């Protein structure tokens, strides 16, 4: 697509895994807010880490990618941010990054 300039439908892009969901135009804002709230409830540091890991490991064979992912996650869990997340989970408290979106 990038090189050829071919156009594809939203349905085709969904089937190829480019999108998580296809909705009619009248449901776009509502659906977008569901995704925004879902992502806003996650740790910004963890989201950034997962994105970085995705790009860092996409060309690695699984036997190399998994140990790398484990190492990065273990370092994160040992960090202050990771410990804060664990503490919030164990104590069943709102994590500090959680904002009220209602």
Summarize the structure.
The protein has 102 residues and is mainly α. It is built from 5 helices and no strands.
Description:
This protein is mainly alpha-helical. The protein has 2 domains: 1-40, no CATH class; 43-102, Lyase 2-enoyl-coa Hydratase, Chain  A, domain 2 (Orthogonal Bundle), CATH 1.10.12. 60% of the residues lie in helices and 0% in strands. It has helices spanning 10-15, 28-40, 44-57, 62-78, 80-90. Helix 3 (44-57) runs antiparallel to helix 4 (62-78) and helix 4 packs across helix 5 (80-90). The longest helix has 17 residues, at 62-78.
List the helices and strands and how they pair.
Elements: H1 10-15, H2 28-40, H3 44-57, H4 62-78, H5 80-90
What general outline do the C-alpha atoms trace?
flat
Which spans of ≥5 residues are poorly predicted at pLDDT below 50?
Answer: none
- The top level CATH class name of the largest domain: Mainly Alpha
Rg is: 18 Å
- In total, the number of domains comes to 2
The number of helical runs is: 5
How many DSSP-defined strands? 0
Roughly what percent helix?
55-70%
* Class derived from helix and strand content: mainly alpha
Beta-strand percent range? under 5%
Q: What is the succession of H and E elements? A: HHHHH
**CATH architecture designation of the largest domain:** Orthogonal Bundle
CATH fold label of the largest domain: Lyase 2-enoyl-coa Hydratase, Chain  A, domain 2
C-alpha end-to-end distance: 39 Å
Mean pLDDT comes to: 89
């Amino acid at each position: 697509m990038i090189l050829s300039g071919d156009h594809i439908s939203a349905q085709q892009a969904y089937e190829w895994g480019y999108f998580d969901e296809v909705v009619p135009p009248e449901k776009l804002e509502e659906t977008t807010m569901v995704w925004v709230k879902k992502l806003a409830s996650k740790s910004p540091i963890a989201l950034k880490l997962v994105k970085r890991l995705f790009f860092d490991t996409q060309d690695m064979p699984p036997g190399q990618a998994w140990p790398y992912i484990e190492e990065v996650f273990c370092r994160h869990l040992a960090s202050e941010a990771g410990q804060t997340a664990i503490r919030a989970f164990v104590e069943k408290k709102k994590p500090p990054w959680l904002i009220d979106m209602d």
